[in-house]
Backbone:
């Protein structure tokens, strides 16, 4: 579905910052791919290129065989800061993609309510985002990105700003949701555990300039519970990745 | 809660809050009164508050008439300034060409002292209310435009990205996002514009008028009727406070998401 070949992204002129250095990667329909790496390794940049928000400096980046030129069809995106609109209530926020596409909002209201129910926000449909906690806001934002049943879901550290407990809960919820719908997900994170827990495949990127270091297929059961994180298979994945980070000089023991 | 109920609640809230300010004003008036009597200041220089109040009490309807004329001019100038200011701000933020074409001209026009334009307006619009409204408008509009432009450009980068990934039309982005982002800025500009419109109305009445508080001040000054000048000035001061207070209440009603939210819930 997605095919990247020698994608380079440089900001500024020749002496500028190189964010991505010759990243080549193919992502098939229905994969859950995590881009894992330290801050500033260009993983968000790659995601923004996929979303059509930025253009690669060189290399080709294609979706369904066509070069990405602006946000592609069937795209859902979740941002690091939830980007909810303060002036609309939760339901209106979730319905925003339908409104922007020019659909009738009433037609999507049942779907929006169903999504909100799934993430436990039924009581808050008419609450303004400011009254919600960070975790609730992020859940509402995820509902928004799912409203139009996206084929491709891009998530830029959506759980990065949350506390550990909320983050675990959203990991479980989101993993279940994905296993039901199986859309293609590209998920940016710097948490090793989160990446292993959620993904079918992990791409490890090096610090700036971002290069692909490792492409790891995660062969864990489809149904994942938190307890899995203590299992031997799970820890062997995390240990391997941590060792990779150590070799890159990112962690010192 | 109904809008009306909400407004009543806001109003009683405002009354409670303004109680402290009332006490401060009372002390100010008391000091003034005592000083005038203690130092035997001639009323023609500085009349004590009691004399000003007496002046007001002698012809309350006449003062009310003059005040309502000035109020009408102020509100008309303010209203036109708000509508035109918002449209102008939208136009120059949506079309870069217009920004480059019109904004320098607008700034240049604003740099001309409006008082200097007043005689010109009399020539153009005659001696009715129109030239006064025009001056009030001209003085007030700059604040609305500057704040509205700032507001329309204050959309957070994440929200811009969101709008782009949702592929909304420019109109949708304007009506669903930019306008709302601009609202708090717009209301700040409107508060400044309201008090400036009042200044504009008085300036207009100074130049040529048979009515309004500006005329009262000017004609009373001609007869060295200082208590009457002070009476008109105190009405102006109260009018200014009330008008800005009305914009404050309108702001709270128009931006419920900004104010109606109580305690933030914890995670």
Residues:
């Amino acid at each position: 579905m997605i095919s990247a070949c020698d994608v380079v992204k440089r900001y500024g002129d020749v002496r500028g910052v190189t964010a991505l250095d010759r990243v080549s990667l193919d992502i098939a329909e229905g994969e859950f791919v995590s881009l894992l790496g330290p801050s500033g390794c260009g993983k968000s940049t790659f995601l923004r290129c996929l979303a059509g928000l930025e253009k690669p400096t060189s290399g080709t980046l294609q979706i369904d065989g066509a070069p990405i030129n602006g946000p592609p069809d069937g795209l859902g995106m979740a941002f690091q800061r939830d980007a909810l609109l303060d002036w609309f209530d939760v339901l209106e926020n979730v319905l925003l993609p339908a409104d922007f596409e020019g659909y009738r909002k009433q037609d999507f209201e049942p779907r929006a309510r169903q999504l909100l129910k799934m993430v436990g926000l039924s009581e808050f449909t008419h609450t303004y985002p400011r009254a919600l906690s960070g975790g609730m806001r992020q859940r509402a934002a995820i509902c928004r990105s799912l409203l139009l049943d996206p084929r491709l879901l891009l998530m830029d550290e959506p759980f990065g700003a949350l506390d550990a407990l909320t983050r675990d809960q959203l990991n479980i919820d989101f993993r279940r949701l994905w296993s039901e719908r199986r859309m293609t997900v590209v998920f940016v994170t710097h948490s090793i555990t989160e990446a292993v827990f959620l993904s079918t495949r992990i791409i490890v990127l090096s610090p700036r300039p971002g290069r692909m270091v490792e492409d790891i297929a995660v062969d864990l059961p489809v149904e994942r519970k938190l307890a899995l994180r203590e299992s031997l298979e799970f820890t062997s994945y995390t240990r391997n990745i941590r060792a990779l980070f150590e070799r890159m000089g990112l962690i010192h023991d | 809660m109904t809008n009306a109920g909400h407004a009543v609640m806001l109003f009683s809230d405002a009354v409670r809050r303004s109680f402290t300010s009332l006490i401060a004003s009372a002390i100010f008036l008391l000091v003034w009164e005592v000083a005038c009597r203690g130092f035997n200041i001639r009323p023609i220089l500085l009349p004590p508050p009691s004399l000003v109040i007496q002046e007001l009490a002698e012809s309350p309807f006449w003062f009310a008439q003059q005040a309502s004329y000035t109020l009408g001019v102020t509100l008309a100038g303010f209203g036109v300034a708000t509508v035109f200011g918002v449209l102008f701000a939208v136009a120059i933020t949506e079309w870069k060409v217009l920004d480059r074409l019109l904004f320098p001209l607008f700034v240049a026009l604003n740099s001309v002292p409006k008082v200097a334009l007043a005689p010109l307006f009399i020539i153009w619009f005659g001696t009715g209310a129109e030239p006064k409204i025009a001056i009030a408008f001209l003085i007030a509009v700059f604040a609305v435009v500057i704040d509205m432009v700032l507001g329309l450009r204050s959309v957070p980068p994440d929200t811009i990205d969101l709008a782009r990934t949702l592929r909304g039309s420019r109109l949708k982005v304007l009506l669903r996002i930019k306008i709302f982002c601009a609202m708090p800025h717009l209301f700040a500009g409107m508060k400044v514009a309201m008090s400036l419109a009042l200044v504009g109305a008085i300036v207009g009445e100074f130049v040529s008028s048979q009515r309004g508080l500006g005329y009262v001040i000017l004609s009373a000054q001609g007869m060295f009727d200082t208590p009457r000048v002070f009476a008109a000035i105190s009405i102006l001061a109260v009018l200014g406070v009330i008008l800005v207070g009305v914009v404050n209440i309108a702001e709270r009603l128009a931006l419920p998401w900004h104010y109606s939210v109580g305690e933030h819930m914890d995670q």
Q: What stands out?
A: The radius of gyration of chain A is 18 Å. The mean pLDDT of chain A is 89. Residues 164-181 of chain A form the longest helix (18 residues). The first strand of chain A starts at residue 2 and ends at 11.
